[in-house]
Amino acid sequence: MPGPLAALKAIRSGLAGARGDVLLLPVSEGAVRDAVKPLGKRLAAALGRRARDAEFQGRAEEVLVHHGEGQSVALLGLGATPVGVDAWRRAGGIGRREAERLGARRAACWLGEVGDPATIGGFAEGFLLAGYRFERYRSDTRGTRTEILALVGPKLPRPRDMAAGFDTVRAIVQGVYTARDLVNEPPSIATPRFLAEQALRLASESSRLHAEIWDAQRIAREGLVGIQAVSRGSAEEPRFIQLRYTRPGSRRRIALVGKGVTFDSGGLSLKPAKGMETMKYDMAGAAAVLATVSVVAALGLPLEVTAYVPACENLPGGRAQKPGDILRYANGRTVEVLNTDAEGRLILADALVVANRGRPDAIVDLATLTGAARVALGSLYAAVLGTDQALIDAVLAAGRAAGEACWQLPLVREYREDIKGTVTDIKNVGGPDAGTIIGALFLAEFVGRTPWAHLDIAGPAYSDKDLPVAPRGATGYGVRLLARWLQDVAAMPSPTAPSPLS
Prior knowledge:
Layout: E1 7-12, E2 22-28, H1 32-36, H2 41-54, E3 63-67, E4 72-79, H3 85-101, E5 106-110, H4 117-129, E6 148-153, H5 159-184, H6 192-204, E7 209-214, H7 216-221, H8 225-231, E8 239-245, E9 253-258, E10 260-264, H9 273-276, H10 284-299, E11 304-314, E12 325-328, E13 334-337, H11 344-357, E14 362-367, H12 371-377, E15 382-386, H13 389-402, E16 406-408, E17 426-427, H14 435-444, E18 452-456, E19 462-463, E20 473-474, H15 479-490
Parallel strand pairs: 1-6, 2-4, 2-5, 5-6, 9-11, 9-14, 10-11, 13-17, 14-18, 15-16
Antiparallel strand pairs: 3-4, 7-8, 8-11, 12-13, 15-18, 19-20
């Protein structure tokens, strides 16, 4: 599904090797003079004057373009020193946008004295991420695409090392593109059946991937009552998707669970019309975990990783579940459904039960679960909650390294009283407060003793404006974070006994 990525080239040379239609020049805040000095007296003086006139300081995400003879120069602000990798990633994304706005097919980035592979990889990743387009439903797709990025500097690592790093970057970005494509498809196309077909397609592309799809009859036999209940109002049959990566000698077994509500009307607890406009993105968690498993296969990590995706629609048909219905889950828990718009937790409960059967070392789920997460943390942060602090800390660290921000919320056990049932063990909603925590407490009933982290990605999974590394629409949030975390897990020493990845 994703289109081709721009080519990446590493050139270990002086500034003379930075040839292209546009020269990208990252600049730390307050360091404009030092940054432009290598360009020669004449061009450096012109850029210095332009920067003073425009009050360009090199602040984060600041841009200044100078049209010179034969080559344009774009100064890209990195922000105050010390500059982190994510600032370079954002600069790469902004540089891509400027290059395409200028009609440049080939861009060169002068790195100066920079030689750190993580920094160089961050810029390259941002440049590739910002090149995503979802245009299959547009009648006019004209516009220049930047096809080559040359990264130039005298301190670059050896070409072999750079090539390996670029391969990793490309695999991860390809996964992000896959997730974005799945979410951006209209809901009449991206049905549960479509998601299952995409899992099969991914499996066909790697000998290390295996997809298993359960239809409605198998879902019933397995006792996945949440998926059955939520899907009853739709003419589209549900699917339960498992995409598994295996490699001989795998040291740990990881379960990834993704919410796959391909369209959420709220069911009989109907959403207002405005609230449904972007509800095709309610399967962003599913898209992220499926894409992540494909990334793991491309990287060949020494792990066993399985994505579990409960996929269905939530519609108010004549057979739809009703407020007051009671469900008995395969692990014995009984749930009273008081709000059919709190459906994500009902299907995730099924997936968590199935995931636990595989005795994983850890479970991480991603879900666009609560509007409360977006209220609390806005559109750039995901909420993280769970039962194992070492696992949560590892996820938070991976998010920082990957440039996908998340923030821990407490799993307040006292709040469980809010979902204590009157005629069942629990109910699917609590009171008006702490909605994100309540949702996580509900899910905690189905994870047993397995170390578990829950990411509520309702905020960052979909953007209503362009971001430095993503155009408006699906962001693919979670793929980079999970890929980084799984790389960290793969690098851990072999466990002497089953442990919670601590």
